[in-house]
Amino acid sequence: MCHKIFQREAVLAAAVIFCFSSFLLCVTALADTYTVNDTADYNFPPPDDRVCLRYAIDQANNHPGSDTIILPAGIYVLSATISTTTENNNKQGDLDILDDLTISGAGAEQTIVDGNGLDRVFDIYGDTVSMSGMTIRNGKAPTGDFGGGGIRTSNGNLTLDKVIVSNNRVAAGGDANDYGGGVGNNGVCTIINSTIANNEAYKGGGLSNNGTSIAIFMSTVSGNTSTGLAGGIFGGNGLTIVNSTISSNSSISGTGGIYSFGANTIISTTITNNSSASGTDGYCNGTGGTLSVKNSIIAQNGNVNCCYSTGMTSNGYNLEDTDTCGFTNASDLINSDPKLLTLQNNGGPTFTHALQSSSPAIDAGTSVFMFGTDQRGQKRPCGAGYDIGAYEKCSSLLLFIPAITGNSKSTH
Prior knowledge:
Elements (H helix, E strand, L loop, with lengths): L1 H29 L2 E3 L17 H9 L5 E5 L2 E4 L17 E3 L3 E5 L5 E4 L7 E3 L3 E10 L2 E2 L9 E3 L3 E10 L2 E2 L12 E3 L2 E5 L2 E3 L2 E2 L5 E3 L3 E5 L2 E3 L2 E2 L6 E3 L3 E4 L2 E3 L2 E2 L6 E3 L2 E5 L2 E3 L2 E2 L6 E3 L4 E5 L2 E3 L12 E3 L25 E5 L7 E4 L57
Parallel strand pairs: 1-2, 2-5, 3-6, 4-7, 5-8, 6-8, 7-10, 8-11, 9-12, 10-13, 11-14, 11-15, 13-17, 14-18, 15-19, 16-20, 17-21, 18-22, 19-23, 20-24, 21-25, 22-26, 23-27, 24-28, 25-29, 26-30, 27-31, 30-32
Antiparallel strand pairs: 33-34
């Protein structure tokens, strides 16, 4: 009897050891880190210990589970010697991400991935992908190929944190799928502390959402252009924008700043200096679209800040320099000049429009749950009350200390 008990205990112990060992093996298999040490771009196994970005992505693609790539300071340029024939296995043209992956750069000013005008830069098929501390520039997506000059996501979740996406475009054309000059999202996209600048596409010069959602926090979308709908942002299925600046975007025939369907939310954001040659300059709801807006500035956008007030719900404390957005809440300010300074470095990770000392937006705003700072990381309030828009003005006697580290200054 004791012998049988011992056997059972031995079998149980062996099973526990086996399961624990298997668990450790699984954990090990689920996460590897690859450090890039070569700025070149090649699609063959390196002959020595060199690791280029494309090869590191290959290794991560072939290793199941969530991996990490460390991308040191340097300029990583896609090679013109690798054919750009369309394929999705990371062997030529753009960099194809096929599995869960985190890419960590040394900072947006130090780590630069350059598409060299050959193809889009990143094509993402992984379920969960995160990029931080880098610039993604000079990508060119072919016309009719579902957009995304800098980054295209096919599904899943993409997070950009302290990233600059600049000077990317979708090849000239008017195809319905030529959207997202900087970012073409077909899944769920979250943008934090980042800059989307100087990109171009037919729809959504800066970025577009043809997927589930885009959420933008403490970021700047500026200097983007479109020949069709939306110079700055095309929100196909809705978007959320908080503590951000949408500035100086333009369109030939569509909305200069934002054009969006679905349910849209804008909080503590500044939308200004956007323009359209023959459409709405600032913000416009598409058919069936709605906008809930609070503590935001929509002003000085060409001649028309908003296309019409249908579907617009003011939750108060908004400011417009004309009266086109339907700001009817008692706390709203209409026909009021916000007295904004130019888009520039005012501290923090991204460019903002500071408020002049005489701005009516100062101390006329309200607190926003869970967001205790402005776009720069400056604590709110910084005075007698909260300010309207993305920027909180402090007395010149107060020292600005950003609450968020990192640098992703716009080149616009």
